Amino acid sequence: MEAKLVGLGVEAFKIALYLSMPMLLAGLFAGLAISIFQATTQINEMTLSFVPKVILVIVVAILTMPWMMNMMIEFTTKIITMVPTFIF
User: Fold this and answer.
1) Mind listing the pLDDT tens digit for each residue in 30-88?
2) Cβ contacts of residue 70 below 8 Å, gap of 6+?
3) Pick from 84, 71, 78, 61: which is nearest to 8 by CA?
4) Residue partners of 12: CB distance under 8 A and separation at least 6
């Protein structure tokens, strides 16, 4: 029983990583591109680096929402079906 709970915890961490990865990667690549742009043009404006990253992360979150919801629904369904195995 403890092994099932540990496995469930590991799977929860994996799901959290999978769900956050598209937005984190989008922010990373946007930040890299903006930093290169700022270095080449020598424009050091704070809003130039912050606003596009926020907008891109929001867009990626909206675009990946169906996939994220499916993953969360599958995981929740799995947890709910496992509940009877944890009751003595």
Assistant:
1) 999 998 998 898 888 877 888 989 999 999 999 999 999 999 999 999 999 988 887 86
2) none
3) 78
4) 75
Cβ proximity of 28 and 56 under 8 Å: no
**Radius of gyration, alpha carbons of the chain:** 19
Closest to 22 (Cα-Cα) out of 80, 52, 61: 61
Structure tokens belonging to residue 87: 């009751």
Look at the chain and report how many structural domains it folds into.
1
Mark out the alpha helices in 1-88 (DSSP H runs). Answer: 2-41, 46-63, 65-86
Residue-wise pLDDT for 25-46, tens only, equals 999 999 999 989 988 988 888 7
Domain span holding position 18:
2-86
